[in-house]
Amino acid sequence: MRGCRGIRVARDAHRRRLPAGVRAPYRSPLAEDVRATTGGSTACLPDHAIEPIADTTAPQLPVTVTDAEGREVEITDASRILPVDISGTIAATVFALGLGDNVVGRDSSTLFAGTEELPVVTKTGHTLNPEAILELAPTVMLTDTTIGPKEVRQQLRDAGIAVVVLSDERRLDNTEQLIAEVAAALGVPSRGDELIAQVDTALAEAQAEIAEAVPASDAQKARMLFLYVRGNANVYYIFGRDSGADSLIDAVGGIDVAGEIGWEGMKPMTAEALVTAQPDVLVMMTDGLASVGGIDGLLERLPAVAETPAGMNRRVIDMADTDILSFGPRSPEILRALARALYAPAAGDTASESAG
């Protein structure tokens, strides 16, 4: 499956006209019928470093915060920050706040430009390596309950590290909360206020752009379903209401069919649910799609997919595992990338029909 790096697509004179002052995220004609589009496509984020805000107010420390687990944590030094979670969102927030130079390590999901040389402190995507963390001697660790185990967090507290557990719900509508929590813990509330305003503006712009491509009638909107797959472990989940995936689908003007059939949270997929939902488009993580051998392998392993419009049209949109549900400061770019792949698939990288 091809990656996203270096993709550049020329502007097309026939793209739909947008209101004055609104930037088009599309670089080729919009699909005539988004429900009948065929073939796979990859949603690609721009390959650039996160731009920090202009505010450079120095951290005002010490501060004491009450974290998401109800602990009072005193932070006296933000010179060596370790931001770790399952999605890389906390690290992205720290970099957007202009404190990227203070970051001493990363989780395996933090892969945006400028973080490549940072040491990884997770044995897998979910597991903290206490020895690697202690070796880095962070003065403050920002994390959440998506990564653990909790015994390691306590071990780090016992070693004198200020460990702040942040809210772990990732949705578009709680981005402000996460930014505010990170900024408060690092003693830079004014930077947090500026970043919140900046992200709010960028999200509004992105959603205005996307709205121009969304069909006016619900009957014409894409019926979408988020499928989480790990073929090597035989894991197949549908992400439904309140999973974060529903937030993403709603924001690009699709219909979340998992929520429509009453699917709550993240639960193992059933053939009955797939056939009942009848999605036009499957949204997947890139590594997940590759783990089953691409679209060919997906159809072979999950015959129920072939009984849906998405399977019949081989319509799968994939996005990098480290991007798709990370939200945070990169949310506007994530929405634009998914919208391009949905409404103007020729503008994105076309996924191969099978892995390789």
What would you note in describing this structure?
The strands form three sheets. Strands 1, 7, 8, 9, 10, 11 and 12 form a seven-stranded mixed sheet that branches. 30% of the residues lie in helices and 14% in strands. It has two domains: 1-49 and 215-356, 3-Layer(aba) Sandwich (Rossmann fold); 63-187, Rossmann fold (3-Layer(aba) Sandwich), CATH 3.40.50. The chain is globular. The protein has 356 residues and is of the alpha/beta class. Helix 5 (189-211) runs parallel beside helix 12 (331-343). Residues 5-23 and 348-356 have low confidence and may be disordered. It has helices at 89-96, 130-136, 150-158, 175-185, 189-211, 245-251, 257-260, 271-277, 286-291, 294-301, 309-312, 331-343, and strands at residues 41-43, 63-66, 72-75, 81-83, 140-143, 162-165, 223-230, 235-239, 255-256, 266-268, 281-285, 316-319. The longest helix is centred in the middle third of the chain and has 23 residues, at 189-211. It contains twelve helices and twelve strands.
Question: What keywords describe this structure?
Answer:
356 residues, alpha/beta, Rossmann fold, 2 domains, seven-stranded mixed β-sheet, three-stranded parallel β-sheet, 12 strands, globular, disordered C terminus
H/E series: EEEEHHEHEHHEEHEHEHEHHHEH
The end-to-end distance, rounded to whole angstroms, is 6 Å
Number of helices: 12
Strand segment count: 12
Mean pLDDT: 89
CATH top level label of the largest domain: Alpha Beta
CATH-scheme architecture of the largest domain: 3-Layer(aba) Sandwich
Oligomer: single chain
What class would the helix/strand composition place it in?
alpha/beta
Shape: globular
As a whole number of angstroms, the C-alpha radius of gyration is 21 Å
CATH topology of the largest domain: Rossmann fold
- Strand coverage percent: 5-15%
Largest sheet: 7 strands, mixed
